[in-house]
Amino acid sequence: EVQLVESGGALAQPGGSLRLSCAASGFTFSLFAMNWVRQAPGKGLEWVSTFSGSGDTTYYADSVKGRFTVSRDNSKNTLYLQMNSLRAEDTAIYYCAKSYGAYIGYFFDYWGQGTLVTVSS
Amino acid sequence: DIVLTQSPEFQSVTPQEKVTITCRASQSIGSSLHWYQQKPDQSPKLLIKYASQSISGVPSRFSGSGSGTDFTLTINSLEAEDAATYYCHQSSTLSPSFGQGTKVEIK
Question: Beta partners for A97?
């Protein structure tokens, strides 16, 4: 059974940093692209970032480019999101989602339960 | 970037009624369009892949159609458990995007 468990969400100050983690199990983690998708309170879904399952290709939404860094440790079956220079508009539930294939360009077949990031002074 | 526009944004529907949700892309995306269901306080769940392909375990009353720029999610004979927000998602480009969502309420 595929499981994705996010952690690391917390209250952070504007300009601060947080690191989110997504622990994966139930599939061969290294073979699949992994994604972060966020949802601001009462709002819709917004794609944030993707790390490919083949090679080290990463992709970012313009809204986070230069501030967020996605990484993965295939030996630990874990995806990370380093979030720097946080802004109030980054407040959201952050979901980890598995892609159907190794590259960006697939649907998301499994989602975690999400972790809440709140940016406020 | 490709913008996906869903309509309507809200729909109040009687059980057993048919529901139709549309998703229009700002440029052609072939069949790289997928649908998700998100119930309150839950994470999204995949309903339909590649515009019209069914997903194992998803009730057969859910179906999708379309290609290019215009897509439709249909729920035949709505059930109370279908109360949720539905999102379309395009995977055609290196910058995936979602529609703004359609909330379906049961009357």
Answer: A35, A111
| pLDDT at res. A54 | 80
Strands A11-12 and A115-119: parallel
Residue A55 above 90 pLDDT?
no
Give the model's pLDDT for residue B33: 98
- Comparing CA positions, the residue from B16, B10, B32, B7 lying closest to residue B80 is B16
At residue A29, φ and ψ (nearest 5 deg) are -55, -45
**Closest chain A residue by Cα to residue B91:** A105
Distance CA A39, CA A75 (A): 29
Residue found under tokens 């601060």: A16
Phi then psi dihedrals of residue A30, to 5 deg: -65, -20
Residue of B nearest to A41 (CA): B41
Best of B91, B93, B100 to mutate (most A CBs within 10 Å, chain A): B91
CB-based contact B44 A113, cutoff 8 Å? no
Question: In sequence order, what are the beta bridge partners of B5?
Answer: B24
